[in-house]
Amino acid sequence: MEDCERVILLGLDGLGRAEIQSFLTPESLTVLEDTLQTGCYADLKSTNPPWTPCAWPSFLSGRNPGKHGVFDFFTNNGYDKNLIDRSSVDSPTLFEVADQTGITPIAVNYPVTHPSPDLDNGAVVPGYLATEDVEFSPSQLREEYEDEYGKYVIYPEYGADSDAVQEYTRVARHRRDMARFLDTRYEWDLMAVQFQVTDSIFHDLDDREKIRQVLENVDDFVGDIINLGDDDTNVFIASDHGMGDYEWTFYVNSWLAENGYCETTTGEEQYFRQAKDELKGESGEKGPSSIVSAVGAAASALSAVGLSPRRIHQGLGTVGLDKTVERLLPEDALVAAQNQVVDHENSVAYQLLFNSLGVHLNVEGRESNGQVSPEEYDDVREELINDLSQVRDPDGNLVFDDVLPREEVYEGKHLEDAPDIVLVPRDYQYDVSGSIVDTFRRYPHKNHKPEGILISNRDLDIDPETGASIYDVAPTVAAALGLPVDSETDGEVLGPFEADERVDWDELAGEYREVADSESGPTDDVEDRLADLGYME
């Protein structure tokens, strides 16, 4: 397109003011600081919930989850769950639309972009939630890159105790190197590169100095990518959500069970589902390790004498195994050997997806063994909303700022796929877990907050009091590129850019669902990585 201005779009997962402000100086995060001094720096409101799997599709499409259909790491099929991929996102992305209009896009490491579509003009290197051996688009790119730079990796080894800074930096460097590699092969108009490690470090590391070192290295890589453009290139640096302190885990299915909404049954021990290799006994030998056998035997004995699942961890202490579990899996200790799961078919309500921050009702005609008739639906939902609104933690504080019907949060053709009730934790200080253990667990840690950041080398004229929305990114970048803005967007065009034309991106992108012939592959390894970061509890 003749009127296309080049754009560099950099995604830094998980960065918010609260955690990076002290680092954001000319002596530390130099590139970010220099960029905002020439343009703008604003808060960027995320999706609800502010989780990676639904936020990045909204970032790239400009549409709320009710339109693109992703609310969690998983989609549900009845009572079953499936890990999401590109086919789960029912909206075209910014770079797919750009490609269809003759613009050349480069997309590196953005989550939920696998399997990648075959672009006519550009390239896609998938990121988070893809398997390590995922195919790139075009397919020969991986081999060509690895011949020059060595093996391309998506994921760090979480908990790399030997040198965490080096490990996270090694992984982040691949994003910079891939951008440089593709810059030599394409006359690109849109260079979109995402860094996931800026989120992972807050989940994985407690040492602020190590976190600062990783962020400074990423900042250097961001500068190298910006240098691939010129003085006229529009630069946007944004995060999908922020990060901050959490104080509690609230086990909503345990609460639902205690209050007569949810039934439980014996199922696969969640502890073994989440265990790391050392407890799986996967050191080259088949079968469980001696530690796993000991924990399993102890748990079975405790269960046999009628001990409640939520007290099994305490019981492990009487046989000397609790400290072993805590040493190896401190974040999973309370679900060690837990063998109670939701009996979905016989429940009225439950949290089905791991991180949706929502409660599903078991509705007749919608679920295979629904317990709530369509005539009862509104009354049951209203009663449950009122009950959940009154839940208090052991300190006497309300757990939720809001408990809302889904139609007050989302809109679009996938509204029916959303949880029936949406939970908004008070100040986002509470994880909401579906495990059947104690109703509350005091658990100080870092997790996602709704306010990310937006930095640009252009003045985007953003009200500092209200900030911008994650839905604003795609239409703003589209306008900067000279693309038609999506008529279905939930965002606005920011700053000096103008939307000369509005078109439904579904029509403009054409067959964006046509992907390469390669399969996504087994997802067990990806799910284990989610468990390592606490997303599968």
Automatic annotation (TrEMBL):
Region (Disordered): 513-537
Single GO MF descriptor: hydrolase activity
Name of the protein in question: Nucleotide pyrophosphatase
Xref: InterPro entries: Alkaline_phosphatase_core_sf, Phosphodiest/P_Trfase
Highest taxon of the lineage: Archaea
A Pfam cross-reference name: Phosphodiest
